[in-house]
Fold:
Amino acid sequence: MSRPTLVQVDLAAVEHNLQIARTCAPASQVVACIKADAYGHGAPEVAQRLDPHTDLFGVASLDEALALDALQLKSNFLLMEGCFCEQEQREALARGFDLVLHNRQQLAWIGSADPAQTTSRLWLKLETGMHRLGFPPAQVSGLLDQLGDSWKERAVLMSHFASAEETDPQPTLDQLARFDSAAAGFDRPRSLANSAAILAWPQSHQQFVRPGFMLYGNSPFTGEAPAQRNLRPAMRFSSQVIALHQLQPGEGVGYNLRWRAQRPSRIAVVAAGYGDGYPRTARDGTPVLVKGQRALLAGTVSMDMLAVDVTDLPVVELGDEVELWGPDLAATEVAAFNEMSAYELFTRLPVRPRCLHLT
Ligand SMILES: *Cc1c(COP(=O)(O)O)cnc(C)c1O
Structure:
């Protein structure tokens, strides 16, 4: 019998969530973002499942695309940071992958590539306010001219939002205005929307949308349950109760006895810790589901274990099922309680918990 700590990924949920993105942006093609091992959900399995339903896959780099080579996917890749050296760019072009061009170096390497030798499209990234990647919007015309006609015919204009999930619309309105005025007059496809913009900014949908977080069943909006957007959480991170203790007031739990019993208390020890990807910084009171019932984290998370105050639950026994996040406890809620991001919870999961993909 192996350790009961498990990450289950529901591939049918991922497919459902992609359809939600399509429903929100019915006129747009979809770039399904599967960078960082599909946000920790397993890129090979997710890619295989979504391949018939997506138009492109968004990855960070050539290596992420090449790692999926053996799957013989029909959908092409978009390398969203572009390439990191000329040799790599040559290989990406030879394979026909779509490339983001966001800096002068990448542009110079394109200058020495023959557009007739590839079907790759170039996604020219414009910096519209986030100050992460891209060229100043005023340079669009010059950049397209520099690329020359054959590349230009295959160029896509893109940008990325800094704050599309926030209630203050102003930063997004500013970015949209900068993008629209730069792109006006160029008859090229456009792409701006991440998950938050797919859900909240229809005017940003354009020709290509780029969902990531929502594909895995999460709402990007603070405090919003996935069901409010008809999204289905794809990941279930779970384990079991492996010890139970009765504590007297004043007795403590875990390293440094951070949590102290204020009353006679019952503590359940669960076989999952920071070595399994549960954040060590999680605070007392973080929600945990024991047999489907809410209980609260008690004490510092250990490498292999954590403890939960189950005093108020009717009966808890050894072997009871514990959900750390999943369909019944949103990862975004666990993250928000700890001032963290669920994007980070997912992407830093180690290989240690066993991972099962459910079809
Ligand atoms: C990761 C990424 C996305 C997806 O963002 P989500 O918030 O996860 O939907 C979109 N565009 C780019 C350029 C990205 O890097």
The chain has two domains: 11-230, 235-358. The mean pLDDT is 97. The pocket of pyridoxal-5'-phosphate is lined by residues 33, 35, 80, 160, 194-195, 210-214, 220 (CB under 6 Å).
